[in-house]
Amino acid sequence: MGRAPCCDKANVKKGLWSPQEDAKLKSYIEQHGIGGSWISLPQKIGLRRCGKSCRLRWLNYLRPNLKHGEYSEEEDEIICRLYLAIGSRWSSIATQLPGRTDNDIKNYWNTRLKKKLLGKQQKHHRQARRDTAPRQEVTIQENGILPIDQLHLAWLTRMVKLQEAPARGMAEESSGTSTPEESMNWDEMIPFMHPDWAHGEQEIFTMQ
DNA sequence: AAAAGATGCAACCGCAAGGGA
DNA sequence: ATCCCTTGCGGTTGCATCTTT
């Protein structure tokens, strides 16, 4: 006996949403709200979609006041700091970035920001960066917060440590499936980021 | 110009938590 | 107390587009 499916898979459309589907979902929710439950919503409006799919589409794309497009340096910095502090709790990170969704932030981190921090730039950028990159020097701003370059440095230092001793830190993640690169000891990283964070994330961020 | 590879992002999947019956 | 249903979350996948060879 498997788990009961949330919808009739055979009659449910998958894949990208059409503009017509978007319009239906958007106009219904704007007029009536979710109107009970996500599960029953697609039937009400005649969409051959799973309720979960509708929810995701609304939250990640159709919802008002969403920001699309480039992230600012400030947003980059917030994501980096929060990721280093609390790990991949994307929904919590998203609460600190109005207009951004957890899915969006997760994608941005996985596809761009992580590479940016790890310095995995495309080949043709490497030489240019080597030629122009200033020497890293550790300086702390007046407010005690490390500038983004220092975060980068802290991150890289940790990466090197893990590569030298891959076994260390592996047991820290409960999932047991993470790579050494992802198995970071956050307590060890926190003092690098913000002095106050060492006292516990709950004091700094309001978790839902 | 075309094929192969890399990248970015939307969407899916499965699990866990929460709440009501 | 426990069962069932719904929601929310994070990891992963699929595919369109871009870049490189």
UniProtKB/TrEMBL annotation:
Annotated Myb-like domain residues: 9-62, 63-113
A Pfam family of this chain: Myb_DNA-binding
Domain of life: Eukaryota
UniProt KW keywords: DNA-binding, Nucleus, Repeat, Transcription, Transcription regulation
Domain HTH myb-type: 9-62, 63-117
Molecular function per GO: DNA binding
Protein location: Nucleus
SMART domains, sorted: SANT
InterPro entries: Homeodomain-like_sf, Myb_dom, SANT/Myb
One GO CC annotation: nucleus
PANTHER family noted in UniProt: OS09G0431300 PROTEIN, TRANSCRIPTION FACTOR MYB36
Protein name: Uncharacterized protein
Organism: Musa troglodytarum
